[in-house]
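note to self — DONT lose this again. spent like an hour looking for the file last time. sequence + predicted structure for the chain T wanted, 118 res
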Amino acid sequence: QVHLVESGGGLVQAGGSLRLSCAASGRAEILRSMTWRRQAPGKEREFVADIAWRGDKTSYADSVKGRFTIFRDNAKNTVYLQMNSLKPEDTGVYYCGGALIGGVYGYWGQGTQVTVSS
């Protein structure tokens, strides 16, 4: 089993920055990719970014390209989401997910709240 814990959320003004962290514990070595998703009040959970657990492959939602960066530290079993130039529409609960071979995200953290004020 893999346990994921997010941190780093908070309240920030528009244009500001936050860095989210997702620490994996347990059998982190079985992970093959990690993702960040977010859910705004009254909306579906949406894709933000993902990264391969090994290698450099990343992908981003169009709405965050050029502003957010996903990266990882394998030595710490931690994935990060650096969020710059934040906008009020970035507000939501951000969830970290982990996938095994096959790409199905079966492990999720509890989420961390990000609120961007205008």
